[in-house]
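User: Sequence recovery, please. Input:
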């Protein structure tokens, strides 16, 4: 099903088949694994895109994606967007904020793209947008703090 690489903070795996064949995902975060699975890959332009397929378990009582699911995915995307900046270092989210722009229906392809607005040190600032089938669903900003290796 997947090829895996062990790191100090989880297991980076690559899907070998299905819709997300060739995409990377993390094993080792129980909440994220249960919430997703969420995937990411490098695009031809060097940026990163994160994605997952919306399922009934991601929906709220109104039949649209739960806001908590979108924010959980945004948190995942922060780290995917900052992959190169982090260079394998462990980090934590200091701040995550989002503005809901539209709904996401069951079955939609949910994607996140973004950019680092400031990096180069222990604190990394990221902004991005999440879409559902190409339509804006959430804009987000976040701050990541790189942790010192022990």
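Assistant: Recovered sequence (150 residues):
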């Amino acid at each position: 099903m997947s090829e895996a690489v062990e790191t100090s903070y989880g297991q980076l795996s690559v899907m070998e088949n299905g819709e997300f064949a060739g995409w990377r995902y993390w094993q080792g975060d129980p909440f994220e694994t249960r919430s997703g699975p969420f995937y990411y890959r490098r695009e031809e332009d060097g940026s990163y895109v994160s994605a997952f397929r919306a399922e009934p378990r991601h929906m709220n009582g109104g039949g649209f994606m739960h806001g908590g699911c979108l924010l959980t995915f945004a948190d995942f995307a922060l780290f995917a967007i900052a992959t190169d900046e982090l260079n394998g270092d462990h980090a934590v989210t200091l701040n995550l904020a989002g503005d809901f722009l539209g709904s996401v229906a069951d079955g939609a392809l949910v994607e996140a793209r973004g950019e680092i607005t400031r990096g180069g040190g222990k604190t990394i600032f990221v902004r991005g947008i999440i879409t559902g089938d190409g339509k804006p669903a959430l804009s987000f900003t976040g701050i990541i703090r790189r942790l010192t290796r022990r």
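The helical segments are 30-35, 67-81, 83-86.
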